[in-house]
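hiii, so i know i said id send this last week but things got crazy w the move. better late than never?? heres the sequnce for the chain we talked about at the cafe, plus the structure i predicted for it. fair warning i was half asleep when i ran it
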Amino acid sequence: MSVRSFRPVFFGFLQAVTAADAVYDHDHEHIDVPALVQAAGFRLAHADGAHLFYSTPELYTPGDPELDWPYRMLRERLVERGGVRYAAFPHLTFGVGDIPVLREVEESLTVDQRYNAAILRWYLVDVRSPSGTSPVTSGLSVSTELGDIAPASEPET
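okay and structure toks below
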């Protein structure tokens, strides 16, 4: 999977609150999740994006060249699937009736397009060792109010 750029995990959220003139202390460290996964010795099995559309136009960031390409691409897909009503995107307020078209557009994109245009990103990390066991849960023992929790014993082979 090729990934165009890495941004802070909360990047889409930060853009939304900034566009809405909301106050948010966004002094976050940049987290490069794929690099973090690799440094931990695990494999990034899949990375994708979700939540491509805000419900109200006030949350979109106008005049950001980095966002022009996803807005243009999403507008084209919206018009293809939903008609001329969507030509005004991102200056639209979406409602429940728009969900089928929004879903179709999201599903029509490649993984890379969703990842790079999405407000939210998600990562599937394979934490199994080559033997098939998980170093994350290996030897895990947790005490709770319900009693001790220990990992299930490995199946006998």
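btw The longest helix spans residues 65-82. thought thatd interest u
miss u guys!!
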